[in-house]
Amino acid sequence: MKIIGGEIEKERDDLHYYFTDSGRSSLRLILRSGLNKKHFLLPDFLCPVIVDILKEEKTSYEFYHIEPDLSINWDKIYRQNFDVLYVINYFGKKYQNLKLHKEQILLEDNAFFYKQDRPANIVNWISFNSYRKVSYLADASLVKSTLPLDSNLILSKQPSWAKMRYKAKEIKELNLREETPNSKNENDYLTLIKLSEEELAQRKTILVPSYRSLYYLQLFDDVSETKIRTKNYYTLQGYLGVQDYAPKDESNSHFIFKTFNRQAIKEHLFRKQVFLPSFWPIHPDFTASQQINELYNSLLVIPTDSRYKHAEMLYIAKLIHEILSP
What we know:
This protein is 40% helix and 14% strand. The protein is an alpha/beta fold. The strands form three sheets. The chain has a seven-stranded mixed sheet, covered by helices on one side. The mean pLDDT is 91. The longest helix has 20 residues, at 183-202. It starts with 15 loop residues before the first strand and ends with a helix. The radius of gyration is 21 Å and the shape is globular. Helix 9 crosses helix 12 (310-324). The protein has twelve helices and eleven strands.
């Protein structure tokens, strides 16, 4: 009979954990902890903020190519010189069987995931996510790392931009409950979103998450959420077809539909009060010196989260068919 009682046991864990207010802050924490001295290899399909932050932190980088099906030519990767390989796990897709030299570092951008699991056979690994991208939280990002980072860089101050974001969320929820949306509420919502984005973009310090988000994080049921997303994902897939880069047993956070009629589809959906996100604006540096990846103009990204039911997924799919098959 084993010992009963006392402190609840937990297996050994050699990882380091850090919470910040945003994915941007997490990236700054990683760079300011010494990685800004290293040479990065970045994907050529990415949020332009990543490039801006590396430039601000005076970090050297070059790019590798993301194929039209979101795959990576690993043979080309291994022929390039780098200290840090920056990998984005796009929209629920996760890259497997990576092989790096023991001195190289894998930095995983898991903005589309709740959970972050260390890949097998990787010695030096750092990962961060962004809970506001995959949940109702207004802020918060978790960093997991095999390498110690400088936690003193994280200021014990809550982000005021997150307070504005929560106020905007409350206004939106109120408007959605009304039979006739209030135009003033809509304007207030958009103003708060704009102001919060401006503050987030201007601030360079690293903050802790808001306490409200830390509270919501412990309530968030990622298992139930993933089940609903998976169901919504396969509803869309039934109407829009199987995509070459469909995620396998992952978060199914978005349904990705490749089309060169993207702008026409988005405008048609906009007129029907369906607002889809854009991934991503093209960084100005690309237009001058870097060949632009076709994915910037060809991916239609549909959220599948638990706000939406089967009927709403069908509605979006039928609206898309109206454009593709007039």
